[in-house]
What we know:
Largest sheet: 3 strands, antiparallel
Strand content: 25-35%
Number of strands: 7
Structural class: alpha+beta
Order of helices and strands: HEEHEEEHEE
Helix content: 25-40%
Distance between the termini: 23 Å
Shape: globular
Radius of gyration: 12 Å
Amino acid sequence: MISNIFLAIKEKIVSGTKDNYETEIFYEKLVQSVNYIANKKDDGYYIDNHKFKDAESVVGELRNKMAHGSYTLDSEKGNVIFKIEKMM
Length: 88
């Protein structure tokens, strides 16, 4: 799953800028993938206390964090910990 997010921009699945991502695949499939890692609420998607306005923003933000090394791997628990400075 994480490798899919990492390659999203490279493979032209998601395009845009930091403030405005757009999907280039079927929206349903993107949402299904995002639902594995984020909680959907009425006002957006949440990972812990971090809010994302839509599924595209989740993929784009996590992809950027991975591309720039803003994450830590917890191999004992099998987790990826992203460094997110602000809430969206």
